[in-house]
Amino acid sequence: MRKQVRYVNHLGEELNLFGDGIYCDSGETHDWEWSYQSLNGYASGFYKAQREFPLTLVIAAGSEERGLALRNRLFEIAEKDVLAKMPGAIHSDGWYMRCYVKASRKDVYWLTGAAAKYELTILADDPTWVREHTVHFTKGDTAGGMNFPFNFPFNFGSPGSGTQQIENPGFVQSPVRITVYGPASHPSVVIGGNRYEVECEVPAGGKLVIDGTEKKITVEDAYGSKENAFHFRRGNQYEGSGSYVFQRIAPGYQLVSWNGSFAFDATVYEQRGEKRWGG
Predict the structure, then answer these.
(1) Is the residue at 278 inside a domain?
(2) What is the CATH classification number for the domain harbouring 101?
(3) Cβ(8)–Cβ(130) under 8 Å?
(4) Do the Cβ atoms of 246 and 240 come closer than 8 Å?
(5) Which of 178, 214, 255, 267 reaches 20 to 30 Å from 146, CA-CA?
(6) What whole-number percentage of the chain has pLDDT above 90?
(7) Which of 98, 127, 156 is the last residue of a domain?
(8) Which residues does the chain have with pLDDT short of 70?
(9) CB 204 within 8 A of CB 182
(10) Do 7 and 88 touch, CB atoms closer than 8 A?
(11) Residue 190 sits in the same domain as residue 236
(12) Same domain, yes or no, for 267 and 186?
């Protein structure tokens, strides 16, 4: 049933964990648990706590040279995250979870350099699975269908003239990241009745990123130089105000509108404690 598993560190270096000599044998990636607070003997609140879980791998390479190289690469890719204190991510069937590899126990590694059994300990500060859904909106295209940079398993489109829509396929509100491509002056986008507005100039070749996952706003020029634009946000900055720049998107299809003077991407971050079965 598993299609792919890989680990990608914070530098973008990745290692396939289900093929090419390494195979994910077992783990607890589908398990989940809520922590809770009690008051007078009753649960008064639930929250996601840090979580550790095992991930068992088997190295079965075609040669000792290849097997030893895989052992070294596995260690080096994971260790860079721990030393930098920046998480990597486990990717599985289109979903990912930010995490560290904090421990490794090995067995049968002495029999041959071509084979070994590993039990990794994964540490996740936020044990939530995430799947990204990105839609590209073209400059000047304020009505009709939408253009896509990729093929998506969900339908995005406009059922009626003069409207566009984006879908949050999850069952709860999801964060959104809006990337505006310059040139753009004081860009504003409305999604699901909420206005995401930043009063700044986005240079040609640059971009503005409103990141609802980390609650950050940055402007980047054509050369990659970034500037904090958090203080340029406009509107009432609280949840549900109608102009909160980090407002989460409700489940289902939501109307999208803007003045058409710039292109932008909208990425919905679907989040689940358990990956959706079947992808």
Answers:
(1) no
(2) 2.40.30.200
(3) no
(4) no
(5) 214
(6) 80
(7) 127
(8) 1-3, 141-163, 279
(9) yes
(10) yes
(11) yes
(12) yes
The whole-number pLDDT of residue 140 equals 81
DSSP 146: -
Does residue 40 sit in the same domain as residue 154?
A: no
d(CA 129, CA 127): 7
Give the residue carrying structure tokens 């560190």.
9
Determine contact, residues 196/190, Cβ cutoff 8 Å. Answer: yes
CA 136 to CA 155: how far, in whole Å?
13
Which residues does 83 contact at the CB level (< 8 Å), separation at least 6? none
Q: Examine the domain organization and report whether 65 and 142 are in the same domain.
A: no
Q: How many CB atoms lie within 10 A of CB 191?
A: 23
Question: Which amino acid belongs to residue 273?
Answer: G
Over residues 8-53, the pLDDT tens digits come to 999 999 999 998 899 988 778 888 999 999 999 999 999 999 999 9
Beta bridge partners of 251: none
At residue 235, the pLDDT reads 94
Residues 92 and 221 in one domain: no
Which residues form the domain of 149? Answer: 130-272
Judging by DSSP bridges, how do beta strands 194-197 and 263-272 pair with one another?
Answer: unpaired
Based on the domain organization, do 139 and 260 belong to the same domain? yes
